[in-house]
Amino acid sequence: MSSLAISVENLGKQYRLGGNAGYSTIRETLRDALLTPAYRLQALLRGQGAIERSDTIWALKNVSFTVQHGEVVGIIGRNGAGKSTLLKILSRVTHPTEGRARLFGRVGSLLEVGVGFHPELTGRENVFLSGAIMGMKKQEIDRKFDQIVAFAGVEEFIDTPVKRFSSGMYARLAFSVAAHMEPEILVVDEVLAIGDLAFQEKCLGKMSDVAQEGRTVLFVSHNMSAISMLCPTAILLEEGRINFHGPSADTIARYVNLMRSGVDSQFDRRADRTGNGLLRITRLYLEDSEGRVIDTVPCGSGVRFVLEYAAADSAASLGDVGIQLMVASGATRLFSLVNEISGDLFQNVPARGRFVCAVDRLPLMPGNYDLHFVCLVGRQLADKLRFAWPLLVADGDFFGHGRLSNNREKHGSLLVSHSWSLDTDRKI
Amino acid sequence: MTEIPVPGSLSPGLSRTPLTITADRSWARLDLRELWEYRELLFFLAMRDIKVRYKQTVFGVAWAIIQPFFTMLVFSLFFGRLAKIPSDGVPYPLFSYAALVPWSFFANAVSQSADSLVGSANLISKVYFPRIIVPLAVMISCAVDFAVAFSLMVGMMVYFQVLPTLHIIWLPGLLLLALITALGAGLWLSALNVQFRDVRYVLPFLMQFWLFVTPVVYPSSLLPEPWRTLYGINPMAGVVEGFRWALLGTATAPGLIIAFSAFFALFFLAGGIWYFHRMERVFADII
């Protein structure tokens, strides 16, 4: 029997953009610098928001959906589509401008791991502080304390100030506290993108435990394979509105389509991007072996990964460029495509161009995968983005014998070209 | 009336009132019951402030005494010895320290709470809890410093052989008055500081000005009536005169001035709560 857990009706959130966008002259800028305090004082006396002469933007508009108890729903969308705003409203961190949301049950939200951790305090003190901040009672934390510490694996250091912790230990303890909240409704933002891979795997495992325990979960991620593994249904947000709400596979397919249509600004807005920026990947897409752009790749067919790039200084030519494309399933790395391994070295690369990596027979079972990329210029990290692109692999005939290879759960994600034979001649 | 879902109380059954999030402004009012539910968070935040404040210092919590003590020495030298400011018949060091103890509490509580929300920006933009807990926790941690500084007051009274009067029973009430005043100012300033970082620059002037309009270095008996009573518009005047009266038995009972102070302190606090809650809804958006 199912019952309503979350009901969102016509939710909207309007943000004001900063006032000093679009000054054209120095005179205007100066005049405003002088007049701004007067405007602000006026706004202050009227008790309203201070940002005068501002444009507004709807980060979320007319969003309505319902979630039943026990449902696990993924929320995907491009950066700035309103995913985080939606979670912030449901977590009561910020208020909607219009509409209403009702939550039936105790809500736990995890917008960031380690909120409230203070570096000077010991692990033990931080567990209690952070737990209390997330709404746990002292008694409850007392009861779960040993479990929390054991899950994080920091027993020996629990009375050491966390500023002496390694970043991995810190992240593990922080996640562990959060993982031991027992809300009926769990709201999770992209938190799995932290820590090392082993830890991410642990996080994903915990998430799927939570999902299987019959809790209601709203889960925002760029990690498409995690979304398709954990969430039977997903919501696609686009420019603050619901673009699609349905089975994850369909939602992800739509998302990929959307990513392809409005590509250029996509990577630029990602906050989790690192590197010195000497070279930036500006576009990533797939082509079939004839050079046609495609969304999904049939299992076992030829595919070309195309990465368009631009150098920061468009006049310069770059030295040695190393490029790595990694295919992952959740937190598990499956394989990497690295130009240094294949022996294709790029020297004196021009300021603009595209790197193309051709794979003859894609050895992946049908399903959702993720692509991470790393670019090095002269051995320095220039650009790195995890979960850069969702890779959709469709049914296909890898072995060329007319039967589809499509049991990923049973046989694993990777396909290796092979043959079996029966040898009856030799006596054993 | 069914129970409101509350963090930490995982109760079975789903037949509860749902948590409703709307754009309705009237939702923002001081919810004392919710505040009570979050009392443990208040405690943990206050503990954090206390523990962290003197970490990695040589003198540790002794700083809570050192600061007012040296201020008292300087005041005694310049205002007591050189300027010969009258001190209502008690030794000037006692006279000024009795005022400095509640004043230091007030000044620290106001300046720390003014910065508290901005300092907790990360919390405020990531987790929900009643925001008023942040400046409230500052009040508690500053009260601990007050207790430490007050212990020296006892020592000084023994040294100068001054017996406290029976009025000492009013001391907790006077401390509460100082706390209400500090919370009132702290709520205003912390909420303003979220939007206008000007507060940071105004604060040092404000506290200096406030020190001079509070009878810390001089007695309020310098003022003729009715100005002396009207002086209570500054609630700290009532607190400081009250401390001297209760501890040192300075002649003039400050009953009227304290009544005036209490009235204005509550008035400031009510205004502070009103403004804080009005702004609370947008803290996460503009912090």
Feature tags:
heterodimer, A: 428 residues, alpha/beta, Rossmann fold, Coagulation Factor XIII, Chain A, domain 1, six-stranded mixed sheet, five-stranded mixed sheet, 18 strands, B: 287 residues, mainly alpha, 12 helices, 65% helix
Give the structure's gist in a few sentences.
Chain A is of the alpha/beta class and 428 residues long.
Give a written overview of the molecule:
The complex is a heterodimer of chains A (428) and B (287). Chain A has three domains: 18-54, no CATH class; 60-259, P-loop containing nucleotide triphosphate hydrolases (Rossmann fold); 272-411, abc- transporter (atp binding component) like domain (Coagulation Factor XIII, Chain A, domain 1, Distorted Sandwich), CATH 2.70.50.60. In chain A, strands 5-6-7-3-8-9 form a six-stranded mixed sheet, sandwiched between helices. In chain A, strands 12-18-17-14-15 form a five-stranded mixed sheet. In chain A, strands 11-10-13-16 form a four-stranded antiparallel sheet, with no helix packed on it. In chain A, 26% of the residues lie in helices and 32% in strands. Chain A has 428 residues and is of the alpha/beta class. Chain A is globular, with a radius of gyration of 25 Å. Chain A has helices at 26-45, 83-90, 123-133, 138-152, 167-179, 197-212, 224-230, 248-261, 339-342, 408-411, and strands at residues 4-16, 56-68, 72-77, 98-103, 107-110, 185-188, 216-220, 233-238, 241-247, 279-288, 293-294, 296-298, 303-311, 321-329, 332-338, 352-359, 367-377, 380-394. With 287 residues, chain B is an all-alpha fold. Chain B has one domain. Helix content of chain B is 65%, strand content 1%. Chain B is built from twelve helices and one strand. The chains are: A alpha/beta (428), B mainly alpha (287). Chains A and B meet through helix 2, strand 4, strand 5 and helix 3 of A and strand 1, helix 2, helix 5 and helix 12 of B.
